[in-house]
Design goal:
Length: about 300
Amino acid sequence: MSASASASTPASREFFAAYEALLARWPAGTAEIDVPTPYGTTRVHAYGPAGAPAVLLLHGGGSTGAVWYANAAALGAHHRVLAVDILGDAGRSVLAGRPLRTTADLMGWLDALLDGLGLRCAHLLGHSYGAWIALTYALRAAGRVDRLVLLDPTRCFAGFRPGFLLRSLPVLARPRRSRVLAYVDREAAGTDTDADWKRLFALAASDFADRKLIVGRRPDARALKAPLLVLLAGRSGAHDPERVAARVREDVPHARIERLPRLTHYALPTAAPAETNRLVCEFLRADPDDGGDGGDGGDGDREGQSRSRW
């Protein structure tokens, strides 16, 4: 369902009111850009110096690009922040033109999006489903990705916990707002996950219930060359963070892994943004020769070792 197709219903007016309320919390100077691609028009929220290195933000399923309001100011101090409403998901991006059906289509959309933004390459940062897109793209278009940041990435290094799938199934089958809100409240319990975002997430699930996100195979990260930072929610219900960390170490020895012990999967990125922003900004601004680690630069003795803070 496109944003324009759903905008006529009262429910969708409520969704877009919640969407605009989150956008109002972005820093002053944020611009709204519509980028045409062969697959449709992509809405991008842009903040930061126009000539600065670009960081493209890819949200989790149903979150929309507005979710990055707590990160935009910090990232935008030294980067051009470009937060996308993923085409085919909830938000103001509109499907039109070529069908968006396969992983190859999704990668073609990202190519066209970077072209439309006038970017040869960019840093990529993704959460959950957005992390899967970011990693898949970094492997298929290595020359266009400078650095890669994955926030509690799903289906990248390990599968979902069976219990998470069982809890999620009723929400996917009948995504009523009250049911989705109760679900995300449970999954984010004990954190300061933003209430306005949780409301937006519940509205997105009900108003865009027939959206079909492209889900391809788990990528083989062993070929990844880009510097990688993985931030894992220590209380993630989506997957076993210990298992994910072990697989990252095995597949991408140069990766930096950080654990945010108090957070759950849905708490990223709205909860504890100061810590997330510090880690991400440190990684993005690190010397290119140190593999993205903001502390002890890389040398011959440390080459190939995972710089894990786990």
